[in-house]
Write a structure and sequence with these properties.
Length: 148
């Protein structure tokens, strides 16, 4: 009897543990995955400029292009109404015009970073300001629309 009770408790914990998981195919899951890729890519680029990682011009240029591609993807995964587990503030849906403006600002800053990264020879001082603009664009949107 104890093993049957233990099995039931374990099965219940498995079921309840899965309740808070985000469906990776849902709009929320898709945009979270894109934002995580953007964060990883921008952290690597920043790490190269700040000495945490060795500066590699080819890797930096490739990362800048990848970040630019990623910056155009998450916006289509914001549905017309807010999902239950979203970390976005209600203002994303209430102030859509401003949200879209900040999204375009990010896209413009990542495009400028990719363009600056294409200039050879690629030097850290050449891409420091464009990367800072990308980071500033991310921060501006988070300050207005992310629910911390």
């Amino acid at each position: 009897m104890p093993s049957k009770s233990l099995f039931i408790v374990f099965a219940a914990l498995l079921v309840l543990g899965g309740c808070n998981k985000i469906d990776p195919n849902s709009p929320l899951g898709q945009r979270q995955a894109i934002f995580k890729q953007m964060l990883k890519t921008s952290e690597d680029l920043g790490g190269m400029l700040r000495g945490r990682l060795k500066f590699d011009a080819d890797a930096f240029a490739s990362g800048a292009v990848h970040l630019d591609e990623l910056s155009r993807q998450p916006w289509k995964h914001f549905p017309m109404v807010k999902e239950e587990h979203s970390n976005a503030r209600d203002e994303v849906w209430q102030r859509q015009e401003r949200f879209d403006e900040l999204a375009r600002d990010l896209e413009a800053s990542t495009a400028a970073l990719a363009a600056a990264s294409a200039v050879k020879p690629l030097l850290p001082e050449t891409v420091a300001a464009p990367l800072q603009r990308v980071e500033d664009a991310c921060e501006a949107c988070h300050k207005e629309f992310r629910d911390y």
